[in-house]
Each structure stands twice: as structure tokens, then as C-alpha cells.
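USER:
Make up one protein:

ASSISTANT:
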Amino acid sequence: MNFKMSEYRQIKLIVKSELADTISDLLEQLGSLAVTYEDAKDDPILEPLPGQFRLWPNTAITGLFASDAPVETHIDILKAILGDNIPVMEVELEDRDWVRAWMDSFVPMRFGSRLWICPTNARVDEKDAIVVSLDPGLAFGTGTHPTTALCLEYLDSQDLNDKSVIDFGCGSGILAIAALKLGAKAATGLDIDEQAIIASSSNAALNNVQDRLTLINTNEPYTMDKAPYLVANILSGPLCELEEIIAAHVKPQGHLALSGLLSEQVDEVLSVYERDFDNLEVKHKDGWALISGTKK
């Protein structure tokens, strides 16, 4: 099904983060079909902890309504409740085929010498290409972010044949699936978010590797064998806090790759991981970094 934005109207407000949930509830009570949150003033949030949900200090909230909704009346109601200090406006949406535009913006990308991430509406004609089919989705990880790219390039550079790999914080499952496509005999994806588990399962089936991928929600107790490879792309704060757990998942002389950290956060993460890992090396990409090493 193709959706034209002329079928919808939207109301937008910019508020302080402490009012965001209240505004969202008001929009839903007025019949909003969907509510989105965006950064209104370029205030990036780089360090949420696992399970933590934080909003920007200035948050833009948009409610999407059907084209026949009484948007003008909704705006009057919101103004009456919120007063004049919070602007309430209708924002016009360009009439486009948004499904096609969304897909057209995601093109095949190569990582390393042979690994490609390719949307399902495209193909790769390169000889000996190893292709992971993946479309953008709810869970983070399509290869477009530098940290994901660094992890994919790392996996492409390794001999994964007949090895097992742990994707710690699997998100979309892209790293685990790439490892399996690159020759790993088995992979395990760990995540605290049930949506990530669902997305990883769906993407594994899309790539016909579901029989070799085990997915674990780490909010529940679990046991598993140590692996010769572990990749984690989950931001520097959680990486530091979870070092003991991450190290416990890696076999002696096993290989580790960590990303999700800014280049200026490298020294802090290195100081934590040098307790259990040797041969630590760093690669940088667009202000982000990847640390690799081997278990002592």
C-alpha cells in the first residue's frame, strides 16, 4: 500500500521536555493517529543508559491526523489549555509517495572488501559479494551510522568460518546476520529491548539465517557458552558499566570489537577494558570509534 501525505494533517508544538508526555496524551485524546518526538534545537542525547528514555530539553512534538479531522478545532482546544506561551501550529506535508521516497533513500552499501547491506528493492551485481538484505526499521542498525559501519568493516576483516559470534545489543540484528553471512557457524543476539528481538528475528528470516541465530532478551535470566567473537555497538557509558559481563562472554584469546563511542571517549573505555583484554586497537570514522582486542 502506498500512502500520500495529502491523506493526513499534522499539528506541531515545541515544548520543554517535562511537558512532552502531557502534550502527547492531549494529542492522542484528540484522536491523533501517531505522535512523534524530535530534537527542536540540536541538543543531541549521546548517553542514555540501557532501558532509559530521555527527551531533548526542547522537544518538537507532532501529532498526525486524518485529512478529515477537525484540526482547527483541535488547535483552538490546545491553545485554550496551554496558553499563549506554547505555539501550536498546523504544518503542511508535501504530497509525496513516502513509502517509495523512504526506500529510494536507502541504497546498497559496501563494508570492507565483500560485505554489502542491500535494501530488499535493490540488488548487488558485484562478483563474490556477500549480501545482507535489510530495510530501515524501528530498531537501530542499517549500516548508515559510522559505528555500525565500523563494526561491519571489522567483521568483514575477520576469518569467521566455523566460529560463533555474540552480537551484544543486537538492535536490528545486522551484525549477527552479517557474521553468519560471512561464514560464522552460529550467532547469538542479546538485547534488553523486545522490539530489537522481534526486528532481529524478522531480519534473520529475511536472510535465511534464522536457524543459526539465537536471540535472548537479557531482561530475563539466561545462560550461554562463551564465544570466540563478540561485537557490541551500544554507547560508551553502557560499555564501561557492562565490561565485566561482556568480558565473561568471550573465550580466552577470543576477539572483541566495541563501538558506539565518540572518538573523545576512547581513552575512558580503553582504561576499563585493558583489565581483561590485550592488543587493544582503535579505528576512527567521522568522529566515532571502534576498539578491538583479544581476551587475556
